[in-house]
Hints:
mainly beta, 3 helices, disordered N terminus, disordered C terminus
Amino acid sequence: MKRMMAYMLAGVLTLGCGTTAFGAEKISGTMMVQDTEVTQSLYADEWGTKLVPVREVGDILGYTVAWDKETRSVTLSDGTTTVGFASGKDAYLVEGETKSIGGAPELLDGVQYVPADLFSAFFPVAMQTKAGQLVFTDLTAEGVEQVTGTVVEAAQYNLVLRLEDGTLRIFTKDQADMTRAGSLEPGSLVAVYYKSADPKTAIKLFAVDPATVKAPAAETPANTAAQEG
């Protein structure tokens, strides 16, 4: 399997898929991953995409980060999903399919950096910005819960969701990770992730297609009683 991934990555790089990245600059912002501060610097490319050190962030999350000398590429895995990539190309090999996220990895000062969106797009991670700080939350960690329901109303700051039993849940969503939220049209199916300590505040919205998409696993609350206000 590892050898097949290497060959497929080599093919992606040979074809030159994706957008070439250049001109990244160090920024003053800080980053927290599961209440642990990232010690290495953050960067931003010329389009403003934030770049984070993949090994340090991956290690904090408990992911496996591996370097392949043959293809000069990196693989990142949480044990369920594996993503392969190489510096300079917005081309990510995800379970045999090449995808783009609008930003490319870069090797900066000898450290491999990736767009912060990579973790949110392909792994069960909520990416938020709070008081100027980039914050990652592992959606499979203890204290994170999830409900799935049908959108009743999606305003600028709030989301009203109807659960399968007819219960209505109201969430604030102005600081939620919307990377995989979809259109939030009334009637669409959405998984909402939130912290047990703050059950009215969504940290990530995930569009769910009942026929093809399964939302990342998270602890399901035993009590889904309606919330008011």
